[in-house]
């Protein structure tokens, strides 16, 4: 009669054999390849590394400008730091997945690796949702500060707050549901746990992706609508509008995310589809950092040019005059132009970032904006100042 120790050895051997078997039966005519499986390493690194560089660069430049040039932080800057921390957490699981399963088919992955993959995917999804929650909140807070005068309670104010709080509440609920999607929690990533129950996580991902895409589109349309309702020159509207047009990237990859989530519901090869779907989240979050950080770039480049290339502005001005000579003007026209230039220097640059009142006047420029249609219920006359 076999001893208990022998039974345990047989069971251990069986479990090892099971863990080394394919996580999915291969299609007819295809054999599982655990040694050197076909993968998308090029796609993985081609997306992860460049967009990580973009996120880090954008964040460092904005923080440098706000801390050392402008010397003032706003609430969205603190949110930016939190979003950056979450985004780094978002990048860690994919780089770990790259070491053992860089977008490979599920039949080329042993069951022992599927556990690691599901855990990495689960952690990455939570950090992604936390990043989106904080990043979009930061963008909308910056939008409120730029375009809504203090004390204003116009339609623009309330509509922006509705979008802001809808985003925050939805993603908070989604994060909680993701963390506790299974009971016990480990069942989310451990296929060997048979007891307990889980939510339909694939459907949860699809709902989240659909809402995210709709919110990206709503933010993009709403910001452009408000910008183009301002009473300023078309050139200035274009400059402001371009800052928020980076959100178009988020819409594109958000739409691709919805498409891949639908495919995830319809396929058994989930590791391959989920791997590609996860990669689409990185251009999306990077575009959010672009929207938040692009407004400081003119200030940053101006600082760099003045500090390291002091003769460059005059050189480019002379070059512009040579390439695009202006028409001769009458003495009265020159006098009027000089007066306009003097007044312009006193006004805030369009790309201005708010500074402390104690700072020198050279850092404080102002540009007034006024919506075309002010609300009667607003506490202001509809006139405010753009503070980017």
From TrEMBL:
Annotated Gene Ontology cellular component terms: membrane
Biased composition (Low complexity): 377-388
Transmembrane segments annotated in the record for this chain: 43-65, 77-101, 121-144, 156-181, 203-222, 242-260, 272-297
Basic and acidic residues composition bias: residue spans: 335-347
Domain Rhodopsin: 61-301
InterPro entries tied to this protein: Rhodopsin_dom_fungi, SAT4-like
Keywords recorded for this protein, A-Z: Membrane, Transmembrane, Transmembrane helix
Compositional bias annotation for Polar residues: 355-365
Keyword Transmembrane: yes
Topology in membrane: Multi-pass membrane protein
Residue numbers spanned by region Disordered: 330-388
Keyword Calcium found: no
Coiled coil: none
Localisation per UniProt entry: Membrane
Protein family: Belongs to the SAT4 family.
PANTHER family xrefs: PTH11-LIKE INTEGRAL MEMBRANE PROTEIN (AFU_ORTHOLOGUE AFUA_5G11245), SAT4 FAMILY MEMBRANE PROTEIN
Descriptive protein name: Rhodopsin domain-containing protein
Organism encoding this protein: Corynespora cassiicola Philippines
Taxonomy of the source species: Eukaryota, Fungi, Dikarya, Ascomycota, Pezizomycotina
């Amino acid at each position: 009669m076999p001893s208990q120790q022998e039974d345990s050895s047989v069971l251990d051997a069986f479990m090892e054999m099971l863990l080394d078997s394919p996580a999915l039966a291969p299609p007819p005519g295809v054999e599982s390849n655990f040694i050197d499986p076909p993968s998308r390493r090029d796609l993985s690194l081609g997306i992860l590394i460049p967009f990580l560089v973009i996120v880090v660069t954008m964040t460092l430049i904005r923080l440098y400008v706000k801390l050392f040039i402008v010397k003032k932080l706003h609430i969205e800057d603190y949110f930016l730091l939190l979003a950056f921390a979450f985004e780094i957490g978002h990048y860690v699981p994919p780089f770990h997945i790259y070491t053992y399963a860089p977008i490979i088919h599920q039949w080329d992955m042993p069951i022992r690796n599927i556990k690691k993959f599901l855990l990495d995917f689960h952690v990455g999804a939570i950090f992604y949702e936390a990043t989106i929650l904080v990043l979009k909140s930061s963008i909308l807070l910056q939008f409120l500060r730029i375009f809504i005068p203090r004390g204003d309670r116009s339609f623009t104010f309330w509509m922006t707050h509705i979008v802001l709080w809808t985003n925050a509440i939805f993603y908070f609920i989604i994060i909680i549901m993701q963390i506790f999607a299974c009971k016990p929690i480990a069942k989310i990533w451990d296929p060997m746990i048979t007891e307990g129950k889980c939510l339909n996580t694939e459907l949860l991902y699809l709902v989240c992706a659909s809402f995210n895409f709709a919110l990206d589109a709503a933010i993009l349309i709403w910001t452009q609508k408000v910008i183009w309702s301002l009473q300023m020159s078309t050139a200035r509207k274009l400059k402001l509008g371009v800052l928020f047009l980076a959100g178009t990237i988020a819409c594109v990859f958000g739409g691709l995310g919805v498409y891949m989530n639908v495919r995830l519901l319809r396929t058994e090869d989930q590791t391959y589809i989920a791997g590609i779907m996860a990669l689409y989240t990185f251009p999306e979050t990077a575009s959010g950092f672009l929207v938040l950080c692009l407004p400081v770039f003119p200030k940053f480049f101006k600082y760099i040019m003045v500090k390291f290339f002091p003769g460059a502005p005059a050189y480019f001005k002379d070059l512009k005059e040579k390439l695009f000579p202006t028409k001769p003007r009458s003495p009265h026209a020159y006098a009027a132009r000089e007066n306009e230039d003097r007044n312009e220097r006193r006004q805030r640059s369009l790309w201005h970032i708010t500074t402390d009142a104690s700072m020198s006047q050279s850092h404080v420029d102002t540009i007034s904006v006024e919506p075309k249609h002010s609300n009667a219920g607003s506490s202001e006359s509809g006139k405010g100042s753009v503070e980017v």
